[in-house]
Amino acid sequence: MPESEVLGPVDYVLLEFHEDRLTGRAAAAVADLVERGIIAIYDLVVVGRTTQGDVYSLDLADTAGEAVGVFRDLAGAQTGLLDEEDLAAATAALEPGTLAVLIVYENLWAVPFVAAALESGGEVIASARIPATDLMAALETWDARRPAEMTS
């Protein structure tokens, strides 16, 4: 199967930010991944919850300020994969006084691997994502145990 007919895995991430800590670095990092062809953005939405608990969304094309940074350049990423129910679930997860970026993206780096697996008759029978925080905690535990295991 030609790579042009294959899609990479599509994931979503909901990143919550406290409004007073926005730097724009996350937006720049996402833009860099897009520019390098590592991911493709399907949908990108910014939602928030005021300190009073009211829910809002931002129109990135009309939003000024450094906080949204390069996310503004991705304002057109709206394929329709996200619906009102998804946005309601995202905003329900937010703490008051925070905003979040909900991003649906394709892992383009995986396309050659997926194509090769399909051509070889392979099929995905299970898939999961290990959250980065869980991985970091597991590696810290492993690093802490490793010297003791090496000396025994």
TrEMBL record:
**Matches recorded under InterPro entries:** DUF6325 (IPR046288)
Q: Which Pfam families match?
A: DUF6325
Q: What is this protein called?
A: DUF1269 domain-containing protein
